[in-house]
Design a protein that fits this description.
Blueprint (H helix, E strand, L loop, with lengths): L2 H18 L3 E2 L5 E3 H8 L9 E4 L3 E5 L4 H11 L4 E10 L11 E10 L4 H15 L5 E7 H9 L5 H9 L4 H11 L7 H8 L16 H16 L5 H12 L1 E3 H14 L4 H16 L8 E3 L13 E7 L9 E5 L1 H7 L7 E6 L1 H10 L1
Parallel strand pairs: 1-5, 7-9
Antiparallel strand pairs: 2-4, 3-4, 5-6, 6-12, 7-10, 8-9, 10-11, 11-12
């Protein structure tokens, strides 16, 4: 049987399992409106997605993920609570590693339920764990909500916090901003030269560009405010680094994070959620003492995750992507819900990776 046919057959089996777990099949178009994704992620999404243009519908993108269209569908006419499953191809541009596939299949399971978020987290995690139980996999977990809470608790300007929040999923850019905001690296000379000018926008000179003169002036004023802001203290940066450096099994990670919370109380509520999730996993029979927690896990995934994140990876197969990934995305339902929102969590499995691992057993 050709490989593509094997992948489709395995995907159908996985989707059937999720249907048995109570999920309704969701169908989404391969072409998605680019405007929605650009509004969510900014122009950076163009580096990872295939964009095309339609004379009537405008810019379109080949589906980079299922979660956004499934959330849109649910927020428009879904009942509560709801569980969905799907299977199909997604498309991602690969600019750094040509060996990684730019077209692959996802099979997913999504839960929209406001009753008990911790129980829903445990439900999705356990279903994926049981589905892949015949493979030798290591589970890793994290919590983007902890990092978000830590950033919001920093003693700095709202603009700086907003910039750091925007780049949580871009670790190198996040680190560069944090180093500059804390005074570890100087302001770029080009920016200092621009801000030193009394009238950076000269009158009588033709204005060329997408931004209006007012927008440019506002941006320059924001840059001036940033240069004049007090640096983030070294103590706060060290606490943030300590949070990101946490790498332990769940119970020990919780203890480390509690120690950090003594000096960083902004993460307290997120810690309560983590503890409830650990209890929910334990109640479902998961050996939480064997599950890893990493403070920085999930920061290179799609930007909609804002809480619990997890992945299942093949031991000793660093050449393979994660077999499954998932997480919580409550804020995405708020953005796409037009005034409505509901807690939501989901996960996807890559059937071609499952097949490769099964063939090697």
């Amino acid at each position: 049987m050709p490989q593509n046919a094997l992948i489709r057959a395995r995907a159908a089996e996985l989707r059937a399992r999720f249907e048995e777990a109570g999920a309704t099949v969701a169908e989404t178009s391969v072409l998605q409106p680019a405007e929605v994704l650009l509004d969510l992620y900014g122009e950076e999404i163009r580096a990872r997605a295939y964009v095309t243009s339609d004379s009537l519908l405008g810019e379109q993108m080949l589906r980079p993920d299922f979660t956004v269209p499934v959330v849109q569908m649910h927020m428009e006419h879904g009942a509560e609570p709801a569980r969905y499953t799907y299977s199909g191809e997604v498309f991602r541009r690969q600019e750094e590693d040509s060996r990684r596939s730019n077209e692959f299949t996802q099979v997913g399971y999504e839960v929209f339920d406001r009753e008990d978020p911790a129980a829903a987290d445990a439900e999705v995690f356990c279903l994926i764990k049981e589905t892949l139980g015949h493979l030798d996999l290591r589970a890793s977990t994290g919590d983007i909500g902890l990092l978000m809470a830590a950033v919001q608790g920093l003693e700095t300007t709202e603009r700086r916090k907003a910039a750091l929040m925007r780049h949580i999923w871009r670790p190198r850019r996040f680190r560069a901003l944090l180093d500059r905001y804390s005074g570890r690296v100087p302001v770029p000379a080009s920016r200092e030269a621009l801000l030193a000018q009394d009238e950076p926008l000269q009158s009588g000179v033709p204005f060329i560009g997408l931004r209006s003169p007012v927008e440019v002036s506002d941006r320059i004023e924001a840059l001036r405010e940033d240069v004049g802001a007090m640096p983030i203290s070294s103590g706060q940066v060290e606490l943030l680094d300590a949070l990101l450096d946490v790498r332990e099994t769940l119970p020990f990670a919780l203890e480390q994070l509690r120690d950090i919370a003594v000096d960083m109380p902004a993460i307290t509520d997120a810690l309560f959620s983590l503890r409830e999730r650990i209890d929910a996993l334990d109640a479902k029979g998961v050996d939480v003492a064997s599950i890893d927690f990493e403070g920085s896990y999930g920061r290179t995934n799609m930007e909609y995750y804002d809480g619990f994140v997890f992945g299942f990876l093949a031991e000793g197969r660093h050449d393979l992507p994660a077999v499954a990934t998932g997480g919580r995305y409550d804020a995405l339902t708020r953005v796409l819900g037009k005034g409505k929102e509901i807690p939501a969590v989901g996960a996807v499995i890559r059937p071609e990776v499952v097949l490769e691992l099964e063939a090697g057993q």
